[in-house]
Amino acid sequence: MSDINLKLHVWRQESRGATGKFEDYSKYAEGISTHASFLEMLDVVNERLAEDGIRPIVFDHDCREGICGSCGAVINGVPHGPQKLTTTCQLHMRQFKNGDEIWVEPFRAGAFPIIKDLMVDRGKFDTIIQAGGFISIRTGSAPDANEIPVPKEVSDGAFDAATCIGCGACVAACPNASASLFLSAKIAHLNLLPQGQPERYKRTRQMVSAHDEAGFGGCTNHKECEAACPKGISTDWIAKMNRDMLIATITGKDGKFA
Amino acid sequence: MKLESHAPTGDIEKRWDQHRFEMKLVNPANKRKFDVIVVGTGLAGASAAATLAELGYNIKAFCYQDSPRRAHSIAAQGGINAAKNYQNDGDSVYRLFYDTVKGGDFRSRESNVYRLAQVSVNIIDQAVAQGVPFAREYGGLLDNRSFGGAQVSRTFYARGQTGQQLLLGAYSALSKMIAANKVKMYSRHEMLDLIVEDNRARGIVVRNLDTGKVEAHTADAVCLCTGGYGNVFYLSTNAKGCNVTASWRAHKKGALFANPCFTQIHPTCIPPSGDYQSKLTLMSESLRNDGRVWVPKDPSNAEKKPSSIPESERDYYLERIYPSFGNLVPRDIASRAAKKMCDEGKGVGPYVGDKRRGVYLDFADAIKREGEPRIMEKYGNLFEMYERITGDDPCETPMRIYPATHYTMGGVWVDYNLMSTIDGLFVLGEANFSDHGANRLGASALMQGLADGYFVIPYTMGNYLARAGNNPMKEESAPVKSTVKDVETRIQGMIDKGAKGTHTPDHFHRRLGHIMYDKCGMSRNEAGLKEGLEEVRNLREEFHDKVKILGSGGELNSMLEKAGRVSDFLELAELMHVDALDRDESCGAHFREEHVREDGEAKRDDENYAYVAAWEFTGVGEKPKLHKEELDFEYVKLTQRSYK
User: Looking at residue A244, which CATH number applies to its domain?
Assistant: First the structure.
């Protein structure tokens, strides 16, 4: 185990719409264990800040095991930092060296207004799901689970799409601030499964509209999202979404004649 | 106060059916006149909110996270049990019931557990219909695996992310009802008090975490689905935000709190590595299906490369002591065995404090048997998670694991209808005490949360509302105003005092955790519990004297949020000690060192302790009042557990 000193710069912003700026917290970021996680490093810095009477850095976090999707910051220009397939909470300080300079700022996108410091409002993701990210089934009306056989490869594909944790890194990474990776993964999960077929085209159309209305940009195939995604969600889903969207559009009534 | 469980009698197979028939119904046209509050949006909360809304009730749902999809159910890894018997290996509703009562070491209510086993099959149907991508066989049908403590394969799973997929299913149902305007969702709101009038729940007081605004919401009934209180130990597998505040506030308003000392320590977590440690990460115990637990026989081998230690020098202690269950013994037994090995100096990994706190979980044999691709398919995401945290690859070198607090069986006391001792206050999921007795079996938490939300509360809520009638409380009435004022006063008090404080809320929380693990953890004894009780009381006083809170109440203030939660944990910790002292027996996860069988296992005292200990709040620092609900075992014969 070894300890490192960091040149740490953190974005501080009092409230929505306020002017923010980077603060140099290097003197609070000395002697950090390389076995600590990135958020544990921020915890240590926060305890030291509080001792000095400075308000702790606000950041979203909860499970700290890479699954809830709460955490996320842009670390040295990259959403969730330098390690591939890793959320901010799972990034460990062994990825950094003594004396490294670290710049931490919030996910930046028009549709993700900053609430405070590193915390952003991702409520628009919920809005997209409410537009059609579900199968309309009433509790109690389901047939026996094994009455709907699902080929393993289809089920595995749906699962791959469904592992999206909704963190928003894809939006922060995209030059257009598009949420297409999130959107398409959510659509693909349900559109692949036999249970999802009845609402397939209606779902696609409504969720795509909700995405556009929320202020996210369009996809222009930069694939920065896929590179930043901590769960390795593939941009193939965007192609699949576009295909379903095309069918929904040209056949008019929610793909009825597709 | 007399505790009425309202559990039906008669044939256990028919109890729930009969009870459903006897319950009152609310006319479909009248349902829209009732408002119901649901606090928490994990499996229990999201499923309850969605289902009640589908029935026609108006729902307000609250969560402290920025989205209902992030509740900590999302982190459950291993799976969900259901008595489907798809594997044709001898499972049945009765067997799941039997295993759960026995696994809970005979401290749960038979009627509740039987109902849980009955509705388990409906949960799987529901989840699949929602699009939950459970693991499948090549023929397209659902796959199952055997899971901690079960001799049949009844666990449904979605790789190591079953909780995530089930929660996304429940969240999708909730989203559908939000879109239908039947649920109003309040994210980033924390419940800080319950509005009660004449022992009837009339609403809640919440704080908007973004603006600091304190507001009241009234309703005809309130459901708490706010999870467990494992974070009282500071280091646990819970999310950082998990807290006891909603349950504790209800407790202080008259809801009895049952069996608080029943806390489960999970055997397969990544060991702590230093003081900055903020949480412990669980590795699903499904790993124990293929991993073999061992320590070096000779402690001087602790630092040797594990693969270089020959078979003859390894102690596969679970397989040795429990030959028929081996590495699949229940959680409490596996945890204590690991702790015993480390206490005896046989642990591996770095020293934490005065001991090496870790044992090996080795996949070398499984990889040899099934090949690395098959093992990676089953556990790939867990292996990757382990490697990110520790820097070691489990395919190359065995994992190191150590027990950590994971689940709390205790919680708010509820009757068979899931209603607490406050009328109209229902408690679902981990937040209640009802189904797991003194120990929960693996893959049963997801089952219980969804059973309560999808298939129990929709019936029992109607029964309550039909009886209670529709007369909502006005927001300007006295109980509402006074509860809001109490909350505002409490917050202002903390802010005023906190400005002069010297130590952060986390400082006190960490110290509380040390006391809890030392004195009220995996094993307990009378002297230690008495010391712990004293230490907790002193810490509570010091906390209120010295806690430091910067900023104001009228803004987003993470220190204030944390201080409020720690304050409630400190009071709960006292009750846990009192309960553990009262229960002068060992049972399930509650291991009193004074009561050990000759073979080293927990020694129950059914004569004197076959009861639910439900505690009544009498004031901070005052001795709580004990109410007993005696437990009858008509179907599962009281026997000492043996997993040998």
Answer: 1.10.1060.10
Does residue A141 sit in the same domain as residue A205? yes
Mean pLDDT of A246-256: 77
State which of B378, B406, B434 marks the end of a domain.
Answer: B406
Torsion of CA B132, B136, B139, B140, to 10 degrees: 10
**Quick check: is B43 in a domain?**
no
Whether pLDDT at A201 is above 60: yes
Of A39, A129, A138, the CB nearest to B278: A39
Do B617 and B485 lie in one domain? The reply is yes
Within 13 Å, how many C-alpha atoms sit on residue B110's CB side?
21
What distance in Å separates the CA atoms of residue B426 and residue B222, rounded to the nearest whole number? 6
Give how far B267 is from chain A: nearest CA, Å: 17
Same domain assignment for residues B493 and B606: yes
Choice among A54-63, B27-36, B145-154, B175-184 with the minimum mean pLDDT: B145-154
Does the distance separating the beta carbons of A83 and B74 come in below 8 Å?
no
Phi and psi dihedrals of A197, rounded to 5? -65, -45
Residue-number span of the structural domain to which A166 is assigned: 122-250
At B598, the pLDDT band (50, 70, 90 cuts) reads confident
Interface test with B, best of A41, A136, A139, A182 (most B CBs within 10 A): A139
Residue in chain B nearest A167 by alpha carbon: B70
pTM for this model (two decimals): 0.96
Whether residues A130 and A246 fall in one domain? yes
A37 and A105 belong to one structural domain? yes
Q: How far is B613 from chain A (nearest CA, A)?
A: 31
pLDDT of B644 > 70? The answer is no
Q: Using one digit for the tens of pLDDT, what is the confidence trace for B492-501?
A: 999 999 999 9
Given B115, B207, B288, B331, the catalytic residue: B331
What is the domain count for chain B? 2
**DSSP one-letter string for B247-262:** HHHHHHTT--EE-TT-
ipTM of the complex: 0.97
Mutate to test the interface with B, among A67, A91, A136, A152 (most CBs of B within 10 A): A67
Check whether residue A156 and residue A49 sit in a common domain. no
Query: In this structure, what CATH number is given to the domain that contains residue B317?
Result: 3.90.700.10
Residue B359 inside a domain? The answer is yes
Average pLDDT, chain A: 96
Of B364, B380, B406, which residue sits at a domain end?
B406
Q: What Å distances lie between residue B89 and B312, B327, B370, CA to CA? A: 35, 20, 22
Mutation target vs B (from A134, A138, A189, A202; most B CBs, 10 A cutoff):
A134
Is residue B620 located within the same domain as residue B487? yes
DSSP state for residue B197 in the 8-state scheme? E
Tell me, what CATH number does B611's domain have?
1.20.58.100
Does residue A243 fall inside a structural domain? yes
- The per-residue pLDDT for range B362-399, each reduced to its tens digit, is 999 999 999 999 999 888 878 988 998 998 999 999 99
Parent domain of B568: 478-630
A166 contacts B176? CB cut-off 8 A: no
A-B CB pairs within 8 A amount to: 215
Average pLDDT over residues B249-272: 95
Q: Nearest CA of chain B to the CA of A128: how many Å? A: 10
Q: Quick check: is B297 in a domain?
A: yes
Residues of B in Cβ contact (< 8 Å) with A55: 550-551, 559
Asked if the structure places residue B300 within a domain, the reply is: yes
Residue A257 belongs to a domain: no
Q: Is B69 a catalytic residue?
A: no
Q: Is the pLDDT of residue B169 over 90?
A: yes
The reply to whether B512 and B385 lie within a common domain is: no
